[in-house]
Amino acid sequence: MDPALEKEYREKLLTAEEAVLKIGPGRTVFLGTACGEPQALVKALLAKSYAMIDSEVIQTLSLGLTFYAEEKYMDQFRLNAFFIGPNMRNAVNEGRADYTPVNLSDIERLFSSGLKPVDVALIQVSPPDQEGYCNLGVSVDITMAAAMNADVVIA
Fold this sequence. Notes:
Radius of gyration: 15 Å
Helix content: 25-40%
Number of domains: 1
Number of strands: 6
Strand content: 5-15%
Strand order of the largest sheet: 4-3-2-1-5-6
Number of helices: 6
Mean pLDDT: 91
CATH superfamily: Glutaconate Coenzyme A-transferase
Shape: globular
Order of helices and strands: HHEHEEHEHEHE
């Protein structure tokens, strides 16, 4: 990688815990979807959830353990699911999370139009290649739209 790009990359590196502290209260946070859900960032987010008072966490579809749907986090942030899998069903049915029914093909427009603004996108990417480009890997659904429309991207 170009030395200037590598220097810039190194200067931006933070631990997951340091990164999630940049979020702050009252923000709308998008979580990467399915296999692309950034597990280390989600764990750090939960450990530092006190910093996210009055925030909304947008979750499209999670295939993993959704600890963030547990009742103990209700006072820190509100979940909003675009799709409901087995691991989110109880949270929505019990009123601990919201459900926004939307077609996958319409989510990008929700973000870009500002109807559902994204302040922070927590995503998972590959390390940069020789030219400094990262790859979304399996997250080629709405993750790019969230990242392109977010004020802050944490990967």
